[in-house]
Amino acid sequence: MPISKSSTFIPFAFKPLDKRTVALRLALTGVPLVAWLGLCVGRLPLAPGQVALTLLAALHLHAPLANSAHAALLHAVVMDARLPRLVAAALIGAALCTSGATYQAVFRNPLVSPGLLGVLGGSAFGAALAIVAGSGSAHAMWIEASAFVGGILAMAVGVGAASLIGGIADARGERGGVLSLLLGGLVSNALFSALVSLLKYVADPLNQLPAIVYWLLGSLAQTGWHDLAWAAAPLALGTLLLCFAAPLIDGLTLSDDEARSLGVPVHTIRFGVMALATLVSALTVALAGMIGWIGLLIPNLVRPLVGASNRFVLPMSALVGAIALMLADTCARSVASAEIPLGVVTELGGAVAFVAVLRTLRRDGR
Q1: How far apart are CA 119 and CA 282, in angstroms?
Q2: Fewer C-beta within 10 Å: the chain N or C terminus?
């Protein structure tokens, strides 16, 4: 009896992967590959085998090299200098890009950055104040703590200013909504930028002013395991919480009236995710100084790959942000005999990439 097509046995059926799944898997694979590249590349180039043996020896899975002096040098370069910087760069890049994607979803604007509510300016003011108050010799922990407190204070000022001008209606007729927060952020940014300029004016030009300027440029040169001991867990937890909150953030892309009609607590979610994104951004500034552009650009670069849903945009932004900042930090310490500040590298790369982002947004009609 002939066998019908419907009864034909197919031993293997492969379901093709969609573009979003492929992009996420490639980004997830790229994180360790770029980290490995960063361990090998630098002013002292290392072979992949040397890096592998050093890592195994540090984990007590392989006997140290016979030449103790050479083994100590490799350990210092890989474990004490490069690895903590790469871990910090990955965490900071992921946190900034996830925060940027969150802000862009909350404000329904693809050109919004994590510093919108003045958190970057407030963190800069806090660090500059600690340097001036400490006569240029303030302990790094005090500068980092002051920068974090300054970022939180700036957010409070921005939200407070937004509440004072909440009677202004935005373009959708929503009173006290997104437009009020935008205006409050402008007020906070202007205030703390002026305060930073004032501190730079009164700072000692020989000791304090160079320290303020260097810190504002952004760098991971002084980052070590002692910094990651207090910053790694909050950064990773905050980034993961924002990714898990992606379905709630998707609800904010609707107008406030539409979201309320669906039972979405708009104000609670909006201020909750904004507070979390601001805390994470303030932590990155406290750890590495001012790192610009990356939180603005990466979410816009990944949306054509994974679509507009934040359930894919947020984790993809975290992975690509980690890759981008690890590459930027590797370039910062490798391309010249003297290290280039990381913030300068991201500004240069961001200026070029921003043109591509604007062309994409214009083509999409946004």
Answers
A1: 6
A2: N
Burial letters 96-114, b for 16+ CB under 10 A, else e: bbbbbbbbbbbbbebebbb
Give me the domain span that covers residue 103.
22-35+49-56+69-361
The CA-atom distances, in angstroms, between 357 and each of 99, 293, 304, 342 are 18, 12, 11, 21
What letter represents residue 176's amino acid?
G
Asked if residue 315 is part of any domain, the answer here is: yes
Residue 347: exposure state from Cβ atoms within 10 A (0-12, 13-18, ≥19):
middle
Q: Give the C-alpha separation, 113 to 90, whole Å.
A: 19
Query: Quick one: tokens of 54?
Result: 């050093």
CA 154 to chain centre: 18
Contacts of 344 (CB under 8 A, 6+ apart): 217, 218, 332
Structure tokens at 43: 């002013």
For residue range 243-260, list pLDDT tens digits in order. Answer: 999 998 888 776 667 767
Instruction: Answer for the pair 130, 147: CB distance below 8 angstroms, yes or no.
Output: yes
Q: What is the CATH number of the domain that holds 169?
A: 1.10.3470.10
In a domain, 175, yes or no: yes
Q: How many CB atoms lie within 10 A of CB 74?
A: 22
Rounded to whole angstroms, the Cα distance separating 347 from 79 reads: 28
Distance CA(251)–CA(194), nearest Å, equals 36
CA atoms within a 13 Å half-sphere pointing along the CA-CB vector of 345: 20
pTM across the whole model: 0.87
Query: What are the tens digits of pLDDT across the range 292-325?
Result: 889 988 998 899 899 889 999 999 999 999 999 9
For the chain, the domain total comes to 1
134 in any annotated domain: yes
